[in-house]
Design a protein that fits this description.
With 138 residues, the chain is α+β, with helices and mostly antiparallel strands. The protein has one domain. It contains 3 helices and 3 strands, in the order αββαβα. A hairpin with a 2-residue loop joins β1 and β2. α2 runs parallel beside α3.
């Protein structure tokens, strides 16, 4: 198979994958609230550490052919209503300021796309998260 055929096949597979994805997030979802957050413990090296686990409601992954993601239908479809950087920042901020914050040693952030892709997580959001963690490292 030559490179032109591979490209055409990949394009067809991406279109098929995108057509199968159906957003299950309600149309009236509060875009300033994360999908979830909770405190738990995880094994790091040979000891348990206290973690805050966040699942931010973010735009869906732009790579429809990725097979790693178990949540292709649990991401926000920006074609329905655009989620802004400010709304994602509010989601992140709403997960802090609680009585259990001081005991937290780690923060894990999950998104419904690629955290490092600018069209999915705006640079302003990443910068806000980096700055927060720089000043509030547990």
């Amino acid at each position: 198979m030559d490179s032109k055929n591979v490209t055409q096949l990949r394009t067809k597979l991406m279109r098929l994958a995108r057509s199968l994805r159906v957003c299950v997030i309600p149309e009236n979802a509060d875009l300033e609230k994360p999908q979830s957050w909770r405190d738990d413990e995880v094994l790091r090296g040979d000891h348990l550490v206290k973690r805050r686990r966040l699942v931010l409601l973010t735009p869906k992954c732009s790579s429809a052919s990725c097979l790693m993601c178990p949540l292709p239908n649990e991401a926000w479809d920006n074609s329905r209503r655009v989620i802004s950087a400010a709304q994602i920042i509010k989601q992140f901020d709403s997960c802090f300021g609680h009585s259990t914050d001081e005991s937290r040693q780690m923060v894990t952030i999950y998104t419904n796309g690629n955290f490092f892709a600018d069209n999915e997580i705006p640079p302003l959001v990443r910068q806000h998260i980096y700055e927060y963690n720089r000043f509030h490292a547990g």
